[in-house]
C-alpha cells in the first residue's frame, strides 16, 4: 500500500492511505542506510489486520525542513504579529530566506492587527513586501482558499498566535495555546510534536514556536538567490561572484541607490552575509585545531 506519514510519535509512524490511518514502524534496514522517515513522506507500507504495519520504501522528497522535521511541503504561512510581540522585519526576512532557499512558497499572515492604534506603518511594510512578490494576509477568512489541496506549514516566532489561528480555521483541532508571559514578553512553547491536520481541505502542520533560526546557506551566491529582488538585479553585475558589498559596477547597489531595492532588506542581506562569513571563519579555525 502507499500513503503519507501524517504523524510521528515515540518510534511509531502514522500513515494515511485512502482515508484510513495505519500505525507503522520503520524496518531496521532504514537505520542501517542512515534513513529516517519524516512527517510528509510518501511511503510504501504493509498493513496487517489487528497488528502494526511496516514502512517498506520512502519516496524521493522535493524538500525538507529541519525544524520542524517535515518534508514535501508545498507552502508555509509565516505568522508575524503586529504587536505582542512587536513586528520583527529582521526575523521575517530570516524565515523568507529559509523558505526561498528550500523552494517552499511563502505566505505571510499578520496577526493582532487590532492591537495597533495606527496601522499605517504596518500597511507600508506590507506594500513593500507585496512589491517584491510576497502575498500578505491579515484576516482568517482569507486563508481557507489558499490552504486547499496543499501541504502547509505554519511557522513563526513564539507567541504570535499560530495555534490560535489554526483553531479559528478548524475549531475541532482544539490546539493548546498559551498567553504571553508578561515578564519575558514572549509566549510559552505550546506545540510539542509535528502532525499533519486536516484543515480547510488541505494538510497543515503546526510547529514548535521559536524566536531565531539558522538557515542552511553557506555562501553569498545562495544568499543572493534567497532575496528575489537582489537576485533579479544581480544578473547585471559585472562580476558573477559579486557579493554586492564592495565590488565595482554592482547592479544591486545601483538598484539600491535608485530605490528599486528596499534599504531595510539590503541591510538584512548584509547582516546575514556577515553571519555566514563569521560562521565560515569559526569553522576554519576549529578545523585547524584538529
From TrEMBL:
- Could you tell me which residue ranges the CP-type G domain spans? 62-213
In the record, biological process GO terms are:
ribosomal small subunit biogenesis
Name the PROSITE patterns on file: ENGC_GTPASE (PS50936), G_CP (PS51721)
GO molecular-function terms, A-Z: GTP binding; GTPase activity; metal ion binding; rRNA binding
Q: Where is the EngC GTPase domain?
A: 71-211
Binding-site residues, GTP:
111-114, 156-164
InterPro entries, from UniProt?
Answer: G_CP_dom, NA-bd_OB-fold, P-loop_NTPase, Ribosome_biogen_GTPase_RsgA, RsgA_GTPase_dom, RsgA_N
Which Pfam family, an example, fits this chain?
A: RsgA_GTPase
Q: Which PANTHER family match?
A: SMALL RIBOSOMAL SUBUNIT BIOGENESIS GTPASE RSGA, SMALL RIBOSOMAL SUBUNIT BIOGENESIS GTPASE RSGA 1, MITOCHONDRIAL-RELATED
Q: Which family does it belong to?
A: Belongs to the TRAFAC class YlqF/YawG GTPase family. RsgA subfamily.
Please report the name of this protein according to its UniProt entry: Small ribosomal subunit biogenesis GTPase RsgA
Q: Which organism is it from?
A: Streptococcus pantholopis
Amino acid at each position: 500500500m502507499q500513503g503519507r506519514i501524517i504523524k510521528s510519535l515515540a518510534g511509531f509512524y502514522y500513515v494515511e492511505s485512502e482515508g484510513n490511518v495505519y500505525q507503522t514502524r520503520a524496518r531496521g534496514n532504514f537505520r542501517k542506510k542512515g534513513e529516517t522517515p519524516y512527517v510528509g513522506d510518501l511511503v510504501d507500507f504493509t498493513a496487517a489486520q489487528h497488528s502494526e504495519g511496516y514502512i517498506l520504501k520512502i519516496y524521493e522528497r522535493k524538500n525538507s525542513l529541519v525544524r520542524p522535521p517535515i518534508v514535501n511541503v508545498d507552502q508555509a504561512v509565516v505568522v508575524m504579529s503586529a504587536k505582542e510581540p512587536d513586528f520583527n522585519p529582521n526575523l521575517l526576512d530570516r524565515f523568507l530566506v529559509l523558505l526561498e532557499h528550500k523552494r517552499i512558497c511563502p505566505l505571510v499572515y499578520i496577526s493582532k492587527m487590532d492591537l495597533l492604534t495606527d496601522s499605517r506603518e504596518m500597511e507600508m511594510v506590507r506594500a513593500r513586501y507585496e512589491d517584491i512578490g510576497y502575498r500578505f494576509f491579515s484576516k482568517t477568512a482569507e486563508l481557507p482558499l489558499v490552504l486547499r489541496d496543499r501541504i502547509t506549514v505554519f511557522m513563526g516566532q513564539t507567541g504570535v498566535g499560530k495555534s490560535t489561528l489554526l483553531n479559528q480555521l478548524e475549531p475541532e483541532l482544539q490546539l493548546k495555546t498559551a498567553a504571553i508571559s508578561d515578564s519575558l514578553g514572549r509566549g510559552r512553547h505550546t506545540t510539542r510534536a509535528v502532525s499533519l491536520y486536516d484543515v480547510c481541505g488541505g494538510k497543515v502542520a503546526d510547529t514548535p514556536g521559536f524566536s531565531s533560526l539558522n538557515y542552511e546557506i553557506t555562501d553569498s551566491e545562495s544568499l543572493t538567490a534567497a532575496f528575489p529582488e537582489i537576485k533579479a538585479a544581480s544578473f547585471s553585475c559585472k562580476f558573477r561572484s559579486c557579493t554586492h558589498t564592495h565590488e565595482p559596477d554592482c547592479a544591486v547597489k545601483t538598484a539600491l541607490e535608485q530605490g528599486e531595492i528596499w534599504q531595510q532588506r539590503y541591510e538584512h542581506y548584509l547582516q546575514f552575509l556577515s553571519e555566514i562569513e563569521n560562521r565560515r571563519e569559526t569553522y576554519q579555525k576549529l578545523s585547524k585545531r584538529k
